[in-house]
Design goal:
This protein is α/β, with parallel strands linked by helices and 432 residues long. It is 31% helix and 17% strand. It contains 15 helices and 17 strands. The strands form 3 sheets. The chain has a 6-stranded parallel β-sheet, sandwiched between helices. The protein has a 6-stranded mixed β-sheet with strand order 12-13-17-14-15-16, with helices on both faces. It has a 5-stranded mixed β-sheet with strand order 3-4-2-1-5, with no helix packed on it.
Length: 432
Amino acid sequence: MPESPYSVMENKLWRSRSDVSGEATPRRMDMPLKHKNISLFGYGKTTRALAKKLGPCTFYDDNVSKPHKDSEGNMLRPSCEFEANYSDCEIPSPGMAPSHPLILQAKNLISEYDYFSDTMPPSVWISGTNGKTTTTQMIQTLLAPHGSQAGGNIGTPLAELDENASLWILESSSFTLHYTNKAVPQVYVLLPITPDHLYWHGSMRAYEEAKLKPLGMMSEGNAVIIPKKYENYPSKAMKITYETNEDLAHYFEIDASRLRFKGAFLQDALLALGVSKILFDECDYDRINAMPLDAHRQEEVRDKNGRLWVNDSKATNLDATVQALLSYKEHPLSLILGGDDKGVDLRPLFEVLQEFDVLVYAIGKNENRLLELSHEFSIEAVGCQTLETACKKIRSEKDQQRTVLLSPAAASLDQFDSYGHRGDEFKKFAKL
């Protein structure tokens, strides 16, 4: 382990944006238009924000049947009309898969991150499978007094961020990282990597490589906080490794007992405080403890009888559900599972479930798979088809002291508009 977690502070990039007179010193000029003919792939939030910043652009989108202009003067064309020889630069919507015909035809493909690589302020990137959003929010909460702004996958495209901000805090998806070949963070926070988005990347190995990609591009004076299993991955950056929350607390000299968070949220908080220590040698317990948590991730509500219902609808993969289970390991559980699991192997989850006092209520597209695995692993389970039916059956339980946990380990779109819609319905049923 490195001798000190604070060496990155010596990098001049992290100095305050005020000079000795106390006046602000702007770091960036307006971004120049680097390419004459920019092609934007996909008419999405990221690409639309770029067009708004750059002026009218040309979009190629699968949902466009004939060329037309939008209200802002952008030209929208069918994907089949793209001609690579007439394009100087192609920027895809992050979710566009590498197998898409537009990606395969592109000759000058760059990511949103790469487009801003020359004008991006010093940045902290956050990635991993679960907890990226919360960790990003916590880091922004701690660093906002230093002039930081948060964006990326958290909801604000880079084109909407201020390039004169002192720091950018960027939640970074594996999709974006896959397409990024130039931009690098000064601090990279990597949460544990577990199977997800394998349909997009093609394999677990490719998914991991996308998440680890920034390490190979980082330099001396940069820092990366990574799970210990990746400690030998090549990088010139200072590596800070961890396996447990205790590792993080010990390394950064953080008193975890002073934090109000538990389970996966505690890891997020420790990582955020670690970044604050790296950059500014600060550990503001009061500020991070005051941060409200987003809905749909281990959100606790109680019914009129005082029974605890936990809305963890955002748990759309196995690891997120395992983290929720660990947070409530002292509770007997009525666990609602199911939805669209996209063919992921669910056995590792059921191996974990064997260690818990749990009743499974199966819903959604993969209900039959869940019931078969419950039988195989000798776990009591009830088929319910819908969330509403599951909640009704749970209310009829003889043991009304069991904690009700919605942590589906699956996407929601088989029956709901979003995981948020699923979570809102669950809270409605909980309060009946």
